UniProtKB/TrEMBL annotation:
Organism of this sequence: Geococcyx californianus (Greater roadrunner)
Superkingdom of origin: Eukaryota
Gene: Smp_0
InterPro entries in UniProt: Ig-like_dom, Ig-like_dom_sf, Ig-like_fold, Ig_sub2
Entry protein name: SMP protein
UniProt cross-references to SMART domains, sorted A to Z: IGc2 (SM00408)
Length: 93
């Protein structure tokens, strides 16, 4: 039930399209952005999995991924120092 915010950022010329994916599903996209956050307001066990941020423009594509683990109440806590994970930057395009 906790909230988690995932974030990534990238720079490029031309500015990249930033996208968040879970598996093959696009969760959020923002053209011409240098940062893109993904808010997961009330985590449930089924939201655990691989999340990937992709930055792409006409010169190339870079991505970073993370594995999100969700601990149920009464279970052992997830091995994170805080309820949020923010990372970046991606390599310049």
């Amino acid at each position: 039930g906790s909230a988690v915010e995932l974030g990534c950022w990238a720079e490029g010329r031309p500015p990249p399209l930033l996208s968040w994916f879970r598996g093959a599903a696009v969760l959020r996209e923002e053209p011409l952005a240098t940062a893109l956050r993904l808010l997961l307001p009330r985590l449930q066990p089924q939201e655990a999995g691989n999340y990937r941020c992709v930055a792409e423009n006409r010169h190339g594509r870079h991505n970073q991924s993370l594995q999100l683990h969700v601990a149920c109440e009464g279970g052992s806590p997830a091995p994170l120092g805080s309820p949020s994970a923010l990372w970046g930057p991606l390599e310049p395009l």
